[in-house]
UniProtKB/TrEMBL annotation, chain A:
Protein name per Swiss-Prot or TrEMBL: NADH dehydrogenase
Protein keywords: 2Fe-2S, Iron, Iron-sulfur, Metal-binding
Cofactor remark: Binds 1 [2Fe-2S] cluster.
InterPro entries, per database record: NADP_DH_HndA-like, NuoE-like, NuoE_dom, NuoE_N, Thioredoxin-like_sf
SUPFAM superfamilies: Thioredoxin-like
Keyword Nucleotide-binding among UniProt keywords: no
GO molecular function: 2 iron, 2 sulfur cluster binding; metal ion binding; oxidoreductase activity
UniProtKB/TrEMBL annotation, chain B:
Protein name: NADH dehydrogenase
Organism, scientific name: Candidatus Danuiimicrobium aquiferis
Database matches in Gene3D superfamilies: 3.10.20.600, 3.30.70.20, 6.10.250.1450, Glutaredoxin, NADH-ubiquinone oxidoreductase 51kDa subunit, NADH-ubiquinone oxidoreductase 51kDa subunit, iron-sulphur binding domain
Stored InterPro entries: 4Fe4S_Fe-S-bd, 4Fe4S_Fe_S_CS, NADH-UbQ_OxRdtase_51kDa_CS, Nuo51_FMN-bd, Nuo51_FMN-bd_sf, Nuop51_4Fe4S-bd, Nuop51_4Fe4S-bd_sf, Thioredoxin-like_sf
Record has 4Fe-4S as a keyword: yes
Family statement: Belongs to the complex I 51 kDa subunit family.
Coiled-coil portions: none
Keywords: 4Fe-4S, Iron, Iron-sulfur, Metal-binding
One Gene Ontology term of the molecular function aspect: 4 iron, 4 sulfur cluster binding
UniProt lineage: Bacteria, Pseudomonadati, Candidatus Omnitrophota, Candidatus Danuiimicrobium
Pfam families: Complex1_51K, Fer4_10, NADH_4Fe-4S
Domain (4Fe-4S ferredoxin-type): residue spans on this chain: 522-551, 552-579
From TrEMBL, chain C:
InterPro entries the UniProt entry points to: Thioredoxin-like_sf
Gene3D superfamilies in alphabetical order: Glutaredoxin (3.40.30.10)
Descriptive protein name: NADP oxidoreductase
SUPFAM superfamilies hit by this protein: Thioredoxin-like
């Protein structure tokens, strides 16, 4: 990342919120939206600009599920584990994804293509069980639909899904 | 003859013969040479379930249930041609739903403030600013008997009155849109479908308590809701409905949006306040209540989305009108997200006092795949299961509490014979353990201990004494936990124990999961008579627990088996038994 | 923009009421609707209505509650009952444009609710 550009970006975000009360979470949201996670150097920068201790920033980042400290994969696969999805087979979808991608919850495939995560409820209970890849929701899924959906994303990236996870494996 | 329409749908829950009846009707219409004047339509849903072939004749709107082939000729000649009802078949349609909170959802364009104004939007606040004192508004709210829709059911007027009574240089109003109950999305729908009515509700609350600043606190998982609320707030500012001197009065209010970041505990009001302040969402002991010491130490009213959406309507139609709906202690209507093993999952709104049975069977169309409904869960991780025996219970704060559940924010999940109650308790508890903020020991340690016990039971390692342990820890948590999350976390355990102790015992004593959900209790074996010796199970077993060959057949060795169920899934001949 | 007064609210309301058209389609565009593909249907209808010059206004609205039937659209055409069509894909949307709007004939197998007033 270009350091000067990064600094300017963060400054812009912080300036917008600086005078507002209770701004830290909102600033972190903006950072997360832009970079997909909260890089350490960004936290340093925010700490300086807002004049709050770094510990305060990390305290907030680590409390909330939404904020990540590591860069996620290119595509985020979120499996809904709301009650409706769970009853209708959400757990089976998760284990199929884990099986195909060869990663566990909150891990990224080795090629950096997919990040697998669990979400509480996407509010699409009428379509249960659902998964969400980036912004798109796929509903009324069966276990066997997963491979087709994933291969759509791998094709975009000129790769093949291995099917058993031999080529992709979890990050330590 | 004016254009007639015949709508048909077979509402039998087991098999759908709509197409057969369609042909029969069509023949009748052709025989009578009515093709030009009558249109026959197959519909997908006619609002009635389990009453055989159902027919609606338009424009007269005659509704006939349990129609037999022999009735077709009569319906066409008498009702369609002559426009007379056939009394013997007539069914009186009876709409169970009452859309008050959802009055504008599906009607107004949520991105247009003008469309909201067209549907009497901002009329309530205009009238109030013109001629009502805050005391008068509180009085009206008291008459309405509206109680908080977030779950606890505290009277809204009292909350406002207490906050109004505190002297302070600054007060706040917060809209709690942190809808954390997994499986519930009432608030999302209102924020996405009718954001202006929530803003108007906040304006009224702010006027009454004397707040000049308001915050929406919305889950980050709801990007569309955030976008729509953002737009609505901007529009209201542009029209001068927010800001200084609103509608020519001295009332001023600014509203900002703050986002949650994926922490269930932030639905608890003191934790929510912490989060709006930009900090970790830790709850703190009450009192002092937020009405005295809230956001940044100032008196604060926190109302839930659904509560706020009710308010403009109450002020327009009067408290008396509102209190005429519902039961003695629970007034008005309630929105539920009806999901799970029910035919029509969706968002419904019914007057308080409607029975669970009416909701599940008459609105929801009953269970899916013809399976028997076993229980209804309300209140999410803080609620409980209500077994089918009590399905005639009316919805209301007290009536559901009496049954060991709560009204909650409006999640209503239908469960059937495929759902294991131990597994359900475990699901909710794992949720609460994950979401526990860790501040107080009863929740942090108690929750984990409960979860361990449930895991033990679902793996077939439970002892009968564990049931008593579950009860004891649960009671301790209810009494000693700091906030609502910890106090209510044991509810799913206690209510499943109360009604489904047999299922727990089956896991413990017989080492069996009656619903076939708990993987730890499966025993896989090959049914020789059904086995075609194809070898699929052998090839798919990840741990070589299947041995044998195509000539002699196959066997599963239990010592090696890890209960993954792969053999069961791949077998094309149902020759692997699980049980 | 100037600050509204109570009279302005009334004026906006009257103005909006005047704008009401006899023929319209409302598309439910909430998260669940969009997840089921409602945005595509909305775009398709806008395009199709414009192309054929049908004089039907396509409007956006929130969730009508029937999540099991998303994407859900409500159709009102003069001389026809108000109809909710559910599980609408492009093919069904085309049928609705051609048959319901064009030919004043109800489309089979996709009606989830119908209001009798004509």
């Amino acid at each position: 990342m270009d350091r000067e550009k990064l600094k300017a970006d963060i400054k812009e975000i912080v300036e917008e919120w600086k005078t507002k009360e209770g701004n830290l979470i909102m600033i972190l949201h903006k950072i997360e939206n832009r970079y997909g996670y909260v890089p350490r150097e960004v936290s340093f920068e925010i700490s300086k600009l807002l004049d709050v201790p770094l510990a305060r920033i990390y305290e907030v980042i680590t409390f909330y599920n939404y904020f990540k400290l590591e860069p996620p994969g290119k595509h985020t696969v979120a499996v809904c584990m709301g009650t409706a999805c769970y009853l209708k087979g959400g757990a089976e979808l998760l284990s199929e994804l884990e099986h195909i991608l060869g990663v566990k919850e909150d891990e990224t495939t080795k090629d950096g293509l997919f990040h697998l995560e669990i979400v509480r409820c996407l509010g699409c209970c009428g379509l249960a069980p659902v998964i969400k890849i980036d912004g798109k929701v796929f509903g009324e899924l069966k276990k066997n639909d997963i491979i087709d959906i994933l291969s759509h994303y791998t094709k975009q990236n000129g790769q093949m899904v291995s099917g058993v996870g031999s080529e992709v494996s979890g990050k330590p | 003859m004016q254009q007639k329409r015949i709508l048909i749908k077979d509402t039998d829950l087991k098999k759908d013969r709509t197409r057969d009846f369609y042909t029969a009707f069509l023949t009748e219409i052709q025989d009578k040479k009515l093709e030009e004047k009558v249109q026959l339509v197959r519909v997908s849903d006619i609002g009635i379930y389990g009453k055989g072939l159902t027919v609606r004749v338009l424009p007269e709107n005659f509704l006939y249930c349990d129609v037999e082939t022999g009735d077709i000729s009569r319906i066409v000649s008498e009702s369609v041609v002559e426009g007379r009802p056939i009394e013997a078949l007539l069914h009186k349609p009876d709409d169970k739903q009452l859309r008050l909170v959802l009055r504008n959802c599906g009607l107004v364009d949520p991105e247009s403030i003008d469309d909201y104004i067209k549907h009497d939007g901002y009329q309530a606040i205009a009238t109030i600013l013109e001629k009502m004192t805050p005391e008068k508004v509180i009085e009206e709210m008291k008459i309405s008997e509206l109680r908080g829709r977030g779950g606890a059911g505290f009277p809204t007027w009292l909350k406002w009155k207490l906050t109004r009574a505190v002297e302070a240089d600054q007060k706040y109003v917060i809209c709690n849109g942190d809808e954390g109950d997994p499986g519930a999305y009432m608030d999302r729908s209102v924020l996405e479908g009718d954001p202006h009515s929530v803003i108007e509700g906040m304006m009224i609350a702010a006027y009454v308590i004397g707040a000049t600043k308001g915050f929406f606190y919305i889950r980050a998982e709801y990007p569309l809701a955030i976008e729509r609320v953002n737009r609505a707030v901007t529009q209201a500012h542009e029209y001068g409905l927010l800001g200084e001197n609103i509608l020519g009065s001295s009332f001023k209010l600014d509203i900002e949006i703050r986002l949650g970041a994926g922490a269930f505990v932030c639905g608890e009001e003191t934790a929510l306040i912490s989060s709006v302040e930009g900090k970790r969402g830790y709850p703190r002991p009450r009192p002092p209540y937020p009405s005295v010491k809230g956001l940044w130490g100032k008196p604060t009213v926190i109302n839930n989305v659904e509560t706020l959406a009710n308010i403009p309507l109450i002020m327009l139609k009067g408290g008396k009108w509102f209190s005429s709906i519902g039961t003695e202690k629970s007034k008005g209507s309630k929105v539920f997200a009806l999901t799970g093993k029910v035919k029509n999952s969706g968002l419904i709104e019914v007057p308080m006092g409607t029975t669970l049975k009416e909701i599940v069977f008459e609105i929801g169309g009953g269970g899916i795949a013809g399976k028997k409904v076993k229980a209804v869960q309300t209140g999410g991780p803080s609620g409980g299961v209500i077994p089918e025996d009590f399905i005639n219970a009316p919805v209301g704060y007290e009536s559901l509490q009496k049954l060991g559940s709560i009204m909650g924010s409006g999640g209503m999940i239908v469960m059937n014979e495929d759902d294991c109650m131990v597994d359900i308790a475990k699901f909710y508890l794992r949720f609460c353990v994950d979401e526990s903020c860790g501040k107080c020991a009863p929740c942090r340690i108690g929750g984990t201990q409960l979860l361990h016990l449930l895991e033990k039971i679902s793996e077939g390692k439970g002892e009968i004494e564990d049931l008593d342990r579950l009860r004891r820890i649960s009671r301790a948590m209810q009494k000693a936990a700091l906030c609502g999350l910890g106090q209510t976390a044991p509810n799913p355990v206690l209510s499943t124990l109360r009604y489904f102790e047999d299922e727990y015992k089956a896991h413990i004593v017989e080492k069996k999961c009656p619903a076939g959900r708990c993987a730890g209790l499966f025993h896989f074996s090959i049914i020789e008579e059904k086995c075609k010796r194809c070898g699929l199970c052998f090839r798919n077993c990840p741990v070589q627990a299947v041995s044998g060959n195509r000539d002699q057949g196959y066997l599963i060795f239990e010592e090696k088996c890890i209960n993954c169920g792969r053999c069961f899934e791949v077998c094309k001949f149902e020759a692997v038994s699980r049980g | 923009m100037k600050k509204l007064t109570k009279d302005d609210l009334q004026a906006i309301k009257q103005e909006e009421l005047k704008k009401e058209t006899a023929n319209w389609i409302k598309v439910g565009l909430s998260t669940c609707g969009i997840a089921a593909g409602a945005q595509d249907i909305y775009d398709f209808l806008v395009e199709e209505v414009k192309k054929r010059n049908l004089g039907v206004s396509i409007q956006r609205c929130g969730c009508a509650g029937m999540c099991y039937a998303e994407p859900l659209i409500e159709v009102k055409v003069e001389g026809m009952p108000k109809v909710f069509y559910g599980k609408v894909n492009k093919e069904t949307a085309m049928k609705i444009v051609e048959k319901h709007i064009g030919g004043k004939i109800l489309v089979n197998d996709h009606i989830y609710d119908i209001r009798s007033s004509q």
